[in-house]
Design goal:
2 domains, 11 helices, 0% strand
Length: 185
């Protein structure tokens, strides 16, 4: 695999050319993003800045969805919890600025809800039971569960923003998850 180029040079390309380059690199070296995780994370962030994803909701300049799609694809390709939360928070920002569009690859708020359920590793009852034993006990007995509960709280925070702004209406199950969010560590 060739050395990764300077990010500034990459950002001078058109979105189409950059997307093609990213896809080629991933095809040629599928594990390369793991070896160069911070480089890819920095690229995703820089592309997000170029896409104007994280600007204030009242900013008159709309986000660029072509650039945003590349940034989000990189976050999702990295695939760990931090990168996925970055992806979903950027999707949230886009939805807050441009509106919910059902079936749109970036602007469908239901993708965020699906993300929550797709990676859920315990039932709500299990989460409540684990919270009830206390953080100290979780820390010493099951740090993995403690970490997972913290991730759940962050994921629910993204969903809560959609509910708070009436972008989605939670069904009973999702509402019950939202109801326990504040109890999560």
């Amino acid at each position: 695999m060739e050395a990764l180029p300077d990010q500034k040079t990459l950002l001078e390309r058109s979105p189409e050319k950059l997307q093609a380059w990213v896809e080629r690199v991933w095809r040629e070296d599928p594990k390369g993003s793991r070896k160069n995780y911070n480089w890819w994370l920095g690229l995703a962030y820089s592309i997000g800045v170029k896409a104007r994803i994280d600007l204030a909701l009242d900013d008159p300049n709309p986000p660029n969805l072509e650039w945003a799609a590349i940034a989000i694809a990189i976050y999702e390709h990295l695939g760990d919890e931090s990168a996925m939360q970055g992806s979903m928070r950027r999707r949230l920002n886009l939805i807050l600025r441009l509106g919910h569009r059902p079936d749109h690859v970036l602007l469908d708020a239901n993708n965020i809800v699906r993300w929550f359920y797709d990676i859920l590793e315990m039932t709500r009852e299990e989460a409540i039971a684990k919270v009830s034993i206390g953080i100290r006990n979780l820390w010493s007995d099951s740090p993995y569960d403690l970490r997972e509960l913290r991730y759940m709280k962050g994921r629910l925070g993204v969903i809560r923003q959609l509910v708070k702004r009436d972008i989605i209406q939670p069904d009973d199950d999702l509402q019950q998850w939202l109801d326990i969010q504040k109890q999560l560590p």
